[in-house]
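Help wanted!
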Amino acid sequence: MSSRLAKGGRLIDRTTACEFSFNGKRLKGYKGDTLAAALLANDQMLVGRSFKYHRPRGIVGSGAEEPNALVNMGTGGRFEPNQRTTTTELFDGLTSTSQNHWPSLEFDIGVVNNYAARFLPAGFYYKTFIHPRFAWKHVFEPIVRQSAGLGQVPKERDADRYEQAYAFCDLLIVGGGIAGLQAALTAAKAGKRIWLVEQTAHWGGRAVVDGVEIEGQPAEVWVNATLAALSKMENVTIRNRCMAAGSYDHGYVLADEKVADHTPGDGRPRHRLWRIRAGQIVTATGAIERPLSFAGNDIPGVMLAGAVRDYVINFGVAPGDRTVVVTNNDDAYRTAIALKEAGLEVPVILDARANLTGELPAKARAMGIRVEAGKGIAKVKGGKRVTSVAICAQAGQGAVLEEISCDAVAMSGGWSPVVHLWSHCGGKLNWDTAKAHFAPDPARPPLNHDGSALVVTAGSASGHLLADEVLADATRAVGGEGAPSAKVPHEAPIEAVWVMPQGAPVELRAKMWLDYQNDVKVSDVQLAAREGYTSVEHTKRYTTLGMATDQGKLSNINGLAILADSLSTAIPQVGTTTFRPPYTPVTIGALAGEARGEIFQPLRRTPVYDWHMAQNAYMEPVGLWRRPYCYPRAGETHEQAVHREVLNTRTNVGLLDASTLGKIIVKGPDAGKFLDMLYTNVMSNLGIGKCRYGLMCNEQGFLSDDGVVARIDEDTWLCHTTSGGADRIHAWMEDWLQCEWWDWQVYTANVTEQYAQFAVVGPKARKLLEKLGGMDVSKETLPFMQWADGVLGGFRVRAYRISFSGELSYEIAVPASEGRAFWDALVAAGAEFGLMPYGTEGLHIMRAEKGFIMIGDETDGTVIPQDLNLGWAISKKKADYLGKRGQERPYLASPDRWKLVGLETLDGSVIQDGAYAPAPGFNANGQRNTQGRVTSTYYSPTLKRGIAMGLVKGGLSRIGEVIEMTKLDGSTQQVRICDPVFYDKEGEKQNV
Amino acid sequence: MLILECPYCGVKAEETELTPGYEAHLKRFGPGSSDEDFENYMFARKNPKGVHFERWRHAYGCGKWFLAARCTATLEVFGTYPAQTSEPPAEIVAKIKAKRPDWKGYK
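Answered by r_m:
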């Protein structure tokens, strides 16, 4: 069993107990424990079930590499799945539950998959769910969804807040082991601005566990002194619990600081996401131990050797009473020695190497531990816990020599440098045959903007596994000299072992786990190779090796070694899969930061926004703006409100807040020439004081924006754009002026927000303005399509006689700061004329009644003005304008193009949004042919029937024809093609 | 995220301050141009793994368009320069040739 030792545990405080729960069981641990350590102290080795076969899973590691021990943490608004117990700090009141099992952890029905394992080989999904086609949706997918997946999705809103911050430094050092500390101290003394981040709460990395001596003292003394020195330096920023998740272009690094994971609800943000921009990145990220591939290596109780001694030394926890150590290198002997020194039994050390020459094996033997050279594990026995191991010769096929009872196995297959941050932004790796690992190639680093090395590695991350080499390498990495001395035992070389025993038959290989989280075994990778998978990337996806939350931290190297062996090629030829951020998962909350709820994105408000809200207007988003859709009165539906607003505007007077309309000033000696290029019609000859409707197209000739242009003076035009188009069109203008016609003297300014602009619309509009008084708004002085500056009700205004409704209409602009006051004046003066505000839906209906197009409704980026019968707004005389060449393409002149028409149902009902007009026959994909679609469809309160516009093959040449249009219920209805102008075709009402 | 120095205001701008404008040094073909020229102008874009000339706008800064020469594979930036030119400055071309002897030129 696993248990708490009577003494020891450098990180725990035995005077402060923490109560926590696991699957409802009340358990006790100490402050300083990780959840994994506390679970082991309570003999809870079984913590989950595997993904595919639902096999029992125990704790394997002691840090970020852990593939198995993932739990649901917390409840309600603090529920989070897939939390690694090995990196979760224990706190009083912690609640956790195991994942991926049903009905219970101890008894799981899904384990039946385990017995059917031979029917669930690599690529099972791809092989099985192909036929029959209908079965995927109705049979396979529901079952797969029920049984697959890790953890559960949180159901409540996240109770915590998250923040983001920026930081800048010359040197970002990732990793707080002795390499990171030495690099930081060396570089800080040289005067550089340093950031030093460590993913755990503690400093010193492995050296403080492994008994390293630095400058003649225990490593911990040197670590504490170095940390103290760094803390006093103004040019150094230190952050623990801060995981560098990814390195990106030009020294950009995301780091996730777990501020309050261990103190939930204390008012601090839970995480702080640092966006760090570093001149250079030093990765002192250490190395991760690899498992060995022997049969039964996934049974709970089989752990990494380094992790076993972490639990003993850091937490005073014994993962087992009798631990067999199995290794191919000297480092694992440290575990045996630590166990023995803690008073625990180590029945045998199995070393796959035939000759043992290092100091550590000698020491182990001297302590009385039995050491077997050239031996390995044939098979681990046990179900939910290891009960014994069968020993065999590494060189053979697994003939059992002896069976030894034990309750834990500490395995070490060697150490792989953590190269993730190096590789994220393009650093290349070399295979080091002697050390049996991939290490960064210093000659091929990721590059910075100036071609210099963006990342350098330090210590074990470079492939140096011994403390003296680590300190020397860390010093060199930052250009320093004179590393502190470290005393380490001589270590004999590792011997690569990818399968144990070497000649294991398939029965054993089918029980050798490579990827614990995804249930990928040695036999799966070999099968993939036999089936023709030669690329490591394809093999990953086919077998799921190295996927999911741990991204193969333990399995990748072992897996690609098996693949290389199966393909009879060398490991470097197979290569690694691509390392992608994040290093360990980052919660979405941290990535979102404060951008949630009300401040998810900026909100643009017009000067009248507060009035709209006070009137209980129903608002709709238009880009980042919020505009009133309608102003419902008590007891009114939105539809009723819209109809009332339309009818009142058509009979009395309506008031629209049109402030969002884009307003761009174009000024300069060449402004007219420029606008003639921008618009399809001529703007240079527009008279001062006059307005003209214009269209803008992109270079392909497709309609992009429209609006009314006003000539202000000799040099100045004011271009109205759509509400959503103002920023885009302004940028478009600047693009052409800066990059194509840079010698033209034109200046543009986007003054959209400088003016409030209101449409006063309806038969009584003039009466209302005359009541306010101050300028002549008569037909004679201010006729249709002209503008004038003046005064109304004491306000300085610019009044445009333009109409998007077909009614007598003035659009009146005032400085934004006076917008609200002017609006109030209009509302007050309008009362006697029956003035009502109207919203965007009323606006849309009235423009549709008039057959006016709306950018984004009648256009979709594939429509030319000619399709919309707007040929009258295209100059035939101009030699060039943006889009002219595009519109000359022959297919755009085809008579088969869909063109704008009006549409009306035979019974007066409203055509449904998105309806299509089917045509006879089917296309090459077996889909029904179509001949048109509706683009705008409304109930017209003015005409008391449905009206619509649409794009139909042949366009207006088919007026009077009746066609079918689809309905949502699958049926069709009869629709007559008609003129798109439903109301006041002669324009008598607007021109008064 | 890239950092590009705006040649107008001198700010070393992060990518979030910039909007991309795709390939630089395109020649516009308007009315009267051949179908082939227009097609190339409209649609044919280089996508090199290596040296590339791009348009960028310092949209959340000074608002100016500028051009950048960089390596799409290593992210090395050879230089940025104002957009008011039809070809890259000689010193940037020389710098690229020195660092990438096999480079075939920007056209």
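OP: Thanks! One thing I noticed: The two ends of chain A are 95 Å apart (CA to CA).
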